């Protein structure tokens, strides 16, 4: 079956938009083609610096003919109604069928040729294409990411008749902008021809092919001089979108720049120049070279390109050195801290200087819990944001923290303080590590808790995909910090400590007035924890079950969720849960019947004596009932004690040990005894089972 | 085999300008001269900001001295100047072949795209003080940004009716690249041995001292407020044909913009105040832009 080839050829498409554009093209085209009744064997979409390409394999030449039966009016309906139906269907009265007194029309719709459908699809896709940013050009109102120059639309080797804003689709495309003998447009016959001819004209269609070429060539030019590339996947993605014929070239850097911090060199190379950093094979320090990915293979082997880029890098690093020298002058921290008074953190949350004051108090308050020296924690918090006013961070915002760490160390601060200044923004994402040194942990927690509390207090909470203040990341950061360091930090205490910072004259009264702040934040943390544990393959309902206990010690909560998960996967656990549910369901049914009496099941179980002997006022006690009561009586203190000592495994073992007694009880004993006293006592027994289990988690919230 | 082309001397600074002028003149651009007020960029010349508004076609090219007081380095930094030159080209509406025309201009000044790495790197340009924005690229030559290439989408806070293509060449940088010079003061100004430093080094020293140390903040502040008050007053006046006096009003907005840059260099603008100042200048420019558009629509 025939293929469809579409190419939307434009001026240079921003690298960061290309991958999504290919996905959008594939998705939108598929939606519209299938809505028109077409199906196909496969499709691929590609995007590069100047073209957005779609290949659909195995499309039929037309949609199939369709026969449809349309229901009309009753045969007895007034003539006007019948005539209307005839007009609508284009048939005569004789051509209608009558079934059960109702008229039906059989309508045949012939299939439509695929090119007509493709033309409609193209018009709609192009006009509604979801570019993150698009523009107008000339006097036209048509929008595209950059001016759209050509359209290739070939179905089964034939040009699809299609025009948009005066631009006609054809079979002509262009190769590399600068390379090759023959520049300008050339015709293509179909997808394979298109791909092959582009490659002849120095254009690699597939992003993967461009990346592979970059890596392979970059490693080769490095290896030739005993060097190796410092891997950088994000940069690789970006440069693969900047060149149609990516050609790595090794350039040299003045070695005297190596006395700058390596983060500065790498950031300067990466953000300004999109160069890869390079090191000697097997070493960790940077080597005085770089790899630039050019778009042309120059006749001189790239010598001129390497020289030019080297000069630009020198100018950039000279700037960086100027900032470095300025920032290291005496008294820098005092100047920066003073300048933070004029920097707004958020219009409703005060200046950066006010934030620093809050962080200092909060870090000191958190210090004992994390095992940090309170004085050092406060000192580190005071200095943590100073580098925001430094020249280097002004130029490279992504070096915040890192530069502060360098400058603090040079200013003679203790290592614990300098490390805390450097690391307090961490973790920066799921792939980042968390600080473990206590002073750094205190400042990192203070940083995130102040942010969360502040923004929640003024109602700037994340909604859907919008999280402009990265509050989700902050909450996840707190969770990871606590979890990975084992710090015992009750959320309630942490939030209330953070809130105090907003109460004084610094923050105004507003934020601390929000009444439900604590509950909202706790729910937010629970959500984040759920997401995190779910990503690790844990069940989110278990998080609910544990959170429902009202505990707010994250370390304990996580440990419980993990232990509960393991427990419920075991046979004992699964059976015990079944027994628990039976008990809970019976109690719930009772509660519905006699809501007023429900609490009475919480009363102690009447002692019916031992060995199942019938006993006075309580009535008959079955042996299994007595056994369960005994088992519960033994398990209850054991579980309580185990939980007090945070020996969750022991608590669960004790719970699991109840299983035979619970099973036997439900096997042999009828709760609904005719004697109300017996019945009541059995209900109390079940209630006691539920209470005991609920010390560990609210098992009602466990799903499945 | 054809004989190799003679290896020509790289262009001097003034020949670079002349070459660009010839090239763009041949593309139908009016060759204008620099605007006679201090501006931070060639874009601010009324030949760009105002002419980009309305529907009338327009093609112009000019050199514009650009003043960025905060970028002064007392003549001690090889790459940074508080006074430098931009070569500005505006074509309205942008012709479909503008990228090719632009690449032709690089060839004209001796940059062969087959030997150098010319790249169009995303850059969504904006100039908040004149409320202008557009989509386009930084054009890189071997990693050096040599041109800002923009399709104007809005100017003076107004969406444009017809899109202009704007090219801004950084002349010193481009010349340094073409001449293979690492220090701007070593640029060959002409072919008779005069260096850029002989012409401009003293200017950098004196004006850096003025911008950073001597400029009087209270005076600047007062002048800023004078200009700010004057714009609406001038716009309310009428010319001999009954027109609004957009051009003199816009001049005052430009002066306000430069006064702000000077106060900024003096460290007199607190971070929290910056946005408010920029907003005040933008409001002045917007008032001028609206008056201009109204006038264009009536014409």
Describe the structure.
The complex is a heterodimer of chains A (704) and B (299). Chain A has 704 residues and is of the alpha+beta class. Helix content of chain A is 50%, strand content 12%. Chain A has 5 domains: 4-62 and 114-200, no CATH class; 67-108, no CATH class; 207-327, no CATH class; 343-537, no CATH class; 567-701, no CATH class. Chain B folds into 2 domains: 13-209, 2-Layer Sandwich (BirA Bifunctional Protein, domain 2), CATH 3.30.930.10; 216-298, Class II aaRS and biotin synthetases, domain 2 (Methane Monooxygenase Hydroxylase, Chain G, domain 1). Chain B contains 8 helices and 9 strands. In chain B, strands 1, 2, 3, 4, 5, 6, 7, 8 and 9 form a 9-stranded mixed beta sheet that branches. In chain B, β1, α2 and β2 form a beta-alpha-beta unit. In chain B, α6 (217-236) packs antiparallel against α7 (246-265), α6 packs parallel to α8 and α7 (246-265) packs antiparallel against α8. Chain B starts with 12 loop residues before the first helix and ends with a helix. Classes of the chains: A alpha+beta (704), B alpha+beta (299).
């Amino acid at each position: 079956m025939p293929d469809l080839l579409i190419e939307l050829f434009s001026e240079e498409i921003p690298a960061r938009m290309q991958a999504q554009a290919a996905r959008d093209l594939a998705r939108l085209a598929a939606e519209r083609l299938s809505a028109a009744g077409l199906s196909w064997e496969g499709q691929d979409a590609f995007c590069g610096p100047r073209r957005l390409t779609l290949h659909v394999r195995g499309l039929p030449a037309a949609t199939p003919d369709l026969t449809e039966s349309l229901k009309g009016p009753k045969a007895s309906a007034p003539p006007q109604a019948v005539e209307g139906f005839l007009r609508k269907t284009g048939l005569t009265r004789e051509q209608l069928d009558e079934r059960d007194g109702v008229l039906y029309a059989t309508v045949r719709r012939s299939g439509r040729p695929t090119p007509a459908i493709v033309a409609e699809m193209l018009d709609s896709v192009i006009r509604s294409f979801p570019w993150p940013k698009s523009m107008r050009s000339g006097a036209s109102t048509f929008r595209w990411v950059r001016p759209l120059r050509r359209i290739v639309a070939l179905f089964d080797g034939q040009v699809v008749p299609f025009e948009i804003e005066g631009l006609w689709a054809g079979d002509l495309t262009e190769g590399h902008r600068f390379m090759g003998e023959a520049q300008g447009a050339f015709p293509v016959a179909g997808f394979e021809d298109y791909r092959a001819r582009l490659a002849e004209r120095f254009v690699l269609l597939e992003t993967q092919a461009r990346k592979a070429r970059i890596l392979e060539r970059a490693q080769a030019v490095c290896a030739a001089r005993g060097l190796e590339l410092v891997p950088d996947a994000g940069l690789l993605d970006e440069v693969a979108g900047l060149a149609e014929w990516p050609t790595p070239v090794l350039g040299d850097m003045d070695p005297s720049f190596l006395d700058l911090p390596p983060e500065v060199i790498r950031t300067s190379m990466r953000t300004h120049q999109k160069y890869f950093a390079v090191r000697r094979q097997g070493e960790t320090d940077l080597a005085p070279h770089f790899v630039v990915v050019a778009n042309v293979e120059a006749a001189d082997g790239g010598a001129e390109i390497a020289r030019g880029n080297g000069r630009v890098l020198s100018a950039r690093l000279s700037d960086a050195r100027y900032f470095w020298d300025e920032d290291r002058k005496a008294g820098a921290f005092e100047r920066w801290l003073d300048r933070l008074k004029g920097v707004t953190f958020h219009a409703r949350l005060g200046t950066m200087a006010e934030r620093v004051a809050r962080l200092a108090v909060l870090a000191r308050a958190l210090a004992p819990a994390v095992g940090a020296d309170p004085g050092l924690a406060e000192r580190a918090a005071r200095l943590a944001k100073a580098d925001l006013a430094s020249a280097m961070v002004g130029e490279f915002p992504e070096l915040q923290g890192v530069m502060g760490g360098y400058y603090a160390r040079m200013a003679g601060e203790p290592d614990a303080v300098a490390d805390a200044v450097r690391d307090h923004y961490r973790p920066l994402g799921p792939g980042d590590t968390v600080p473990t040194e206590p002073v750094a942990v205190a400042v990192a927690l203070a940083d995130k808790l102040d942010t969360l509390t502040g923004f929640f207090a003024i109602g700037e909470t994340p909604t859907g995909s919008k999280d402009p203040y990265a509050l989700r990341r902050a909450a996840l950061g707190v969770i990871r910090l606590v979890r990975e360091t084992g710090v015992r930090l009750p959320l309630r205490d942490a939030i209330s400590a953070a809130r105090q910072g907003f109460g004084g004259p610094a923050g105004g009264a507003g934020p601390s007035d929000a009444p439900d702040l604590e509950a909202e934040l706790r729910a937010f943390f629970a959500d984040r924890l759920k997401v995190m544990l779910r990503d690790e393959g844990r069940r989110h309902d278990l998080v609910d079950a544990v959170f429902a206990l009202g505990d707010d010690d994250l370390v304990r909560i996580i440990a419980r969720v993990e232990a509960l998960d393991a427990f419920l996967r075991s046979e004992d656990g699964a059976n015990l849960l079944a027994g628990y549910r039976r008990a809970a369901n019976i109690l719930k049914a009772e509660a519905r019947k006699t809501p007023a009496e429900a609490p009475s099941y919480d009363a102690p179980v009447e002692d019916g004596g031992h060995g199942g002997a019938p006993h006075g006022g309580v009535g008959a006690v079955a042996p299994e009932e007595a056994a369960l009561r005994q088992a519960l009586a033994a398990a209850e203190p054991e579980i309580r004690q185990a939980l007090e000592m945070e020996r969750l495994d022991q608590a669960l073992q004790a719970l699991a040990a109840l299983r035979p007694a619970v099973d036997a009880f439900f096997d042999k004993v009828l709760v609904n005894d005719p004697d109300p006293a017996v019945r009541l006592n059995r209900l109390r027994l079940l209630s006691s089972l539920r209470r005991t289990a609920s010390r560990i988690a609210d098992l009602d919230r466990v799903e499945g | 085999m054809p004989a190799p082309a003679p290896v020509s001397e790289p262009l001097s600074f003034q020949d670079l300008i002349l070459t660009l002028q010839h090239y763009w003149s041949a593309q139908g651009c009016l060759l204008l001269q620099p605007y006679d007020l201090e501006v931070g960029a060639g874009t601010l010349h009324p030949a760009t900001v105002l002419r980009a508004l309305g529907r009338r076609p327009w093609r112009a090219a000019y050199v514009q001295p650009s003043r960025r007081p905060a970028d002064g380095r007392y003549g001690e930094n090889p790459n940074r100047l508080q006074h430098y030159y931009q070569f500005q080209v505006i074509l309205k509406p942008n012709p479909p072949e503008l990228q090719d025309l632009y690449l032709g201009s690089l060839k004209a000044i001796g940059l062969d795209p087959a030997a150098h790495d010319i790249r169009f790197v995303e850059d969504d340009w904006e100039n908040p003080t004149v409320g202008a924005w557009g989509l386009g690229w930084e054009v890189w030559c071997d990693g050096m940004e040599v041109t800002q290439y923009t399709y104007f989408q809005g100017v003076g806070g107004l969406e444009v009716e017809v899109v202009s293509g704007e090219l801004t060449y950084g002349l010193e940088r481009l010349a340094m690249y073409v001449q293979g010079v690492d220090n701007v003061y070593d640029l060959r100004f002409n072919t008779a041995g005069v260096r850029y430093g002989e012409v401009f080094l003293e200017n950098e020293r004196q004006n850096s001292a003025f911008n950073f140390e001597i400029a009087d903040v209270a005076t600047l502040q007062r002048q800023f407020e004078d200009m700010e008050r004057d714009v609406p007053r001038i716009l309310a006046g009428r010319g001999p044909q009954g027109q609004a006096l957009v051009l003199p009003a816009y001049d005052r907005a430009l002066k306000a913009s430069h006064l702000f840059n000077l106060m900024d260099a003096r460290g007199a603008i607190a971070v929290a105040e910056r946005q408010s100042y920029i907003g005040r200048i933008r409001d002045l420019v917007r008032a001028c832009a609206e008056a201009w558009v109204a006038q264009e629509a009536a014409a």
